[in-house]
Amino acid sequence: MFRTALRNVLAHKARLLMTVLAVTLGVAFVSGTLVFTDTLSKAMSNQSAKSYEGVAVSVTDYGRARGEDGQKQGDPGIGQQTLDKVKAVKGVDTVSGRVQGFAGVGDRSGKLIGSGWANAGANFAPVKDGKDPRYTFTEGSGPVKDDQIALDKDSAAKGEYQVGDKVRVATNGPVREFTLTGVFTTEDGAVNAGGSLVLFDTKVAQELYLQPGFYRELSISAKAGTTADQILADVKPLLSKTAEAKTGAALAAEQAKDIERAMSGMSTGLLIFAGVSLFVGIFLIYNTFTMLVAQRTKELALLRAVGANRGQVKRSVLAEAGVVGLVSSVIGLACGIGLAVAMRSAMELFDAKIPAGSLIIAPATVLVALVIGVLVTMLAAWLPARRTAKIAPVAAMGSVHLPATMKSLVLRNIIGSVLAVIGIGVVLLGAGQKSDGRTTIAAGAFFLIIGLFVLLPMLSRPVIAAVRPLLEKVFGVSGKLAAQNAVRNPRRTAVTAASLTIGLTLVTAMSVIGITVGQAVDRLSTQNIKADYRVTMAGEGMNLDKSVLPALEKGKGVTAVSPKTMEIVRIGGDSRTVSGVNPAALDAVLNVKTTAGDLASLGQGKLMVSAKEAQKRGLSVGSTVDAQYDDGEKGKLQVGALFDGKDQLEDYVLDNRILAAHNESQYLPEVLVKVSGGTSAAGQQAVVDALGKNPAIKVSDKAAMRNEMAGMINTSLNIMYGLLGMALIIAVLGVINTLAMSVYERQQEIGMLRAVGLDRGRVKNMIRLEAVVISLFGAVLGIGVGVFLAWAGGRTIAGSVPGYELVIPFDRIGIFFLLAGLVGVLAAMWPARSAARLNMLTAIKTE
Questions:
Q1: What region holds the ABC3 transporter permease C-terminal domain (predicted)?
Q2: Which pLDDT tens digit goes with each residue over 604-655?
Q3: In total, how many domains does the chain have?
Q4: What whole-number distance in Å separates Cα of residue 833 and Cα of residue 677?
C-alpha cells in the first residue's frame, strides 16, 4: 500500500503542485522566522558579551530618587570621591566613569544622521596610555578639550567628515560646533541600531548630561588573580543606596535574556503570518485531496475488492499526504533559510546595522519545519481519507464521484448554524461589555468563523444564485454555465473560497477599526490644536532645553509660543502630573473649552483642573488646595477654572513660570508655536531658523502631527495588508487547483459543449467567470463578517477614543472586491487555457 501511495504521488505531480506550494509557503515563513530570530539573537548576544569584555564589575546609579514625601533625595549620580574609593579597592586594575545622553550630528546639509531615538553621546574615558577600552580608533584619537569630539566610523562616513573637520552637534540645547579629533569603531547598541555616537571630553559630557563631577556608571577591571565576585563584595559597601553593582558576566547574561525576550516578541509577530498561511493552506490541501480521492474512486474501490481493508485504504491516502508534506517541508525549510538571509539584508537597507555572525540553523528549527509541514498536510487529508475508506467497494465502483449524503449535509448545516449563532451571541455579549469585552469578542469571532466555514456550502447556493441573472445578461451562455458550475459542488466551492474569507475578515475588521480611530485622532488633532507647528526633539519624548522658548519667541513671524512641560506636584497630599503652559499664548495654540471659571485666571497664578477630576475630588472654582513642588517648597493654589479635559493637557494645569521657579531642569517634551499667515513653507523655515537650524530638533506642521499620531494605526494596517497579501497568494493557488481539477473531471462535458457550438473564447470566459464568482463569494462573506466584528470591537474602545464614530471605508472595501475579482481572473488563466485547448473528439471519448 505504501508503494501504491508513492506511485499515486508520482502519477499526480501536477495536481499536487499547488498543495506543495501552499505547504512550502507556510513552512518557509515558520523556518525563516526561527532562523532569522535565532541568528539575530545569537549575533546580538555575542555583541553584548563583547561590550563587557574586560569589565569585572559595573556600577550604575540613576541619581536622586523620590522619597515618601515625593521629594528627590541623594546625589545626581556617582561622585568623584566614590570613584576614587573604588579605584583604591584591592585587586582593582582600572576604573572608568561614564555618562551618556542624547546627541544629534548633522551632515553637511544640516540633516540629522541616523534615527533620532538611537543617536547617543558619551564621554571619552581613557584609563591607560590615553586609550578607552570601549572604543577602537581607526583615525585620530579621543577628545581631550572642550571643543573636541570623536565620531563613530559609520556616522563619519555618512556625514563625509574627516579628522580636523568642524562638526555641528546638538544635545537638547543650542547647536555647538566641535573639531573632529578621531573616528572609532564600537559595539555600542546605539550605533548598531542605525544611530550615531559622539564622544565628548568627560567634563563636557558631565555638564551636558548630568552635573560636573558626577558619573552615571563605573566600569571596573580586575587585576590578574582577582575574581569579579571579590571586587563586587568589596565595592558594594562604598556605594549609595541608589547605586546598583553587578559583575560584567551577570550583566552580559541579563542583556542576553533581554535580547531573547525582544526576539521572542518579533518572532511571535512573524509567526502570526506563518500561522495564517498554514491555516489557509489547510483548506487548499483538504480540497485537493478531496478531489483526488473522488477522481480515483474506482481505483480505490478496486483495492478494496482485491482485499485491502478500510484502514489500509485510509493509510494509503494519508501516506500520500505524508510524502507530499515531507517534500514540501524540505523545500520550505530551504526557502525559509533563504528568506532569513533576505530579511537580514532588508534590515540593513533600513540603516539597521546587523551584528556580524554566522547563520544559525538549529536542529529544533529543522524538526519544527518538518513536523509542521507533515502534520498540516496529513491533518488536512485525514477527512477525505476517512470518507473514502467508508465507501463500500460496489457502491464506489458504480460512481465516479462521491456525493455527500443528505444526512451528512443536514448534520453539517445544523452544526454550522449552532456554531454561528453561538459566535454571534458571544460577540454581541462582548460588545456590550465595553472595554472588558475584547477577549469575549475574540472567542465569539472564533466560533463565528468556524461556523461560517461549516455553513459555506449551504451559503454558496443563494449567494451565487443572486448574481446568476447578471452573469447571464452580460456574458450569455458562458455566464449561465459559470454560475451553474460554481454551485455544482458546494463543498468544493466553499473550501476554495475559504482562504479569501479568512484574509478579508481579518483585513476588513482591522481596516474599519483603524480608519475609524484614525479619523477620530485626526479630528482630535484638528479641533484641539490651533498651533501651526509643534517643536520636539528628533527622538520622540526626549527633553527640549528651555533655551528654545526665548529663541522661538524672537523668531520671525512668530505670534504665540507655549511650552507643554510636565511636572510632579503633590496636590492635596497626592502626587499629580501637572502641565505647565504659557497662559498668554494658550488660547492661540490650543482649543481649551472652560466649563467654569475663566482661562485668564491661569495668568494670575491660579490652577486649572479638568471637570472630570474636579468632580472626583470635590473641587470647584474658588476651591483651595495644598501644593508641594519639586524643590520641597509648599504653598496653596486656588482653582481658577475648570476645562473639558481633552487629552492635550493633564488634569491639572499651571502657569509654567510657577513650575519653572521650583525646578531648574524641567521636562519639556514639546513646544507649540503659532505664526502669522498660518502654515506655510516660509513659516516653517522661520521656526527652523529661530532654533539655529538644529538637526536634533523636529518642527512638525499639522499634517505631520496627524501622521505621527496615526503612526501605530498605519503600522497595524500595513501588517494586516501583509496578511491579506499572503491570503491572496494562497487563494490564487487554491482557485487554480480547484479549476484545474474541475477541468480534468469535466473533459467530456467541455468536449460536448465545444461540439455543440461553444467556441474557445466562450469556454475560457466560462472558466474565468467561475473563478471570479468563487472569489467574490469568499470576499462578500469575509467583508460582511469583518465589518460586523469591527463594529463589535469598536464598541470596546469607543470610551477611550474621544469622538469615536464608526466609519465604513467603502473605497477600501471596493478595492478589496477588485482584488478578489483579480484573484479569480489570474487564477483562471492556466485552467481556462487548458480547457480551451482540449481536443473535442478526445474529450468526448474520455470517461
A1: 272-393, 723-839
A2: 999 999 998 898 889 999 999 999 888 888 889 999 999 987 667 888 999 9
A3: 4
A4: 63
pLDDT digit string, tens, across residues 248-284: 888 878 777 776 776 676 667 667 766 766 776 677 6
**How many CA within 13 A on the CB side of residue 110?**
9
Contacts 24+ apart (CB under 8 A), 636-639: 637/571, 637/605, 637/606, 637/607, 638/606, 638/607, 639/597, 639/606, 639/607, 639/608, 639/609, 639/614
With residues binned 3-state (H G I as helix, E B as strand, rest as coil), the percentages for the chain, rounded to 5, are 60, 15, 25
Q: What is the pLDDT of residue 639?
A: 92
For residues 112 and 238, state if they share a domain: yes
Q: Is the pTM of this model over 0.70?
A: no
Q: What's the pLDDT at 150?
A: 95
User: Do 114 and 250 have their domain in common?
Assistant: yes
CA 188 to chain centre: 25
Looking at the fold, whether 147 and 225 belong to one and the same domain comes out as yes
Q: Which helix (H) or strand (E) holds 178?
A: strand 176-185
DSSP, collapsed to helix, strand or coil, labels residue 642 as strand
How far apart (Å, rounded) are the C-alpha atoms in residues 566 and 555?
24
Identify residue 570 by its one-letter amino acid code: R
Residues 499 and 18: beta-carbon distance below 8 Å: no
**Chain centre distance of CA 615:** 39
- HSE value, Cβ hemisphere, 13 Å, CA-based, for 220: 35
Q: Reduced to 3 states, what is the DSSP secondary structure of residue 334?
A: helix
84, burial (CB in 10 Å: exposed 0-12, middle 13-18, buried 19+)? exposed
Q: How confident is the model at residue 401 (pLDDT cuts 50, 70, 90)?
A: very low
C-alpha cell belonging to residue 573: 497630599
The reply to whether 575 and 546 lie within a common domain is yes
Alpha helices for 487-573 (secondary structure H) = 490-528, 548-553
Name the residue among 196, 215, 239 with its Cα closest to residue 102: 196
Phi-psi bin for 759: left (phi > 0), alpha (psi -120 to 50), beta?
A: beta
Cα–Cα distance measured from residue 235 to residue 219, given in angstroms and rounded to the nearest whole number: 12
Residue-range definition of the domain harbouring residue 227: 57-257
| Location of C-alpha cell 459559470 | 482
Distance between CA atoms of 289 and 277, rounded to whole angstroms? 18
* Nearest-10 Cα torsion for 656, 657, 663, 666: 40
Torsion, Cα 158 695 522 524, to 10 degrees, reads 150
User: What confidence category does residue 678 fall into, taking pLDDT thresholds of 50, 70 and 90?
Assistant: confident
Joined together, the cell numbers standing for residue 89 give: 579597592
Contact (Cβ atoms closer than 8 angstroms) between residue 725 and residue 504: no
Cβ atoms 354, 348 nearer than 8 A: yes
Give CA–CA dist 679/241, Å, rounded. 51
Residue 447 belongs to a domain: no
Residue-wise over 782-796: b if at least 16 C-beta within 10 A, else e? bbebbbbbbbbbbbb
Cα separation, 844 vs 847, whole angstroms: 8
- The answer to the question of residue 413 being in a domain is no
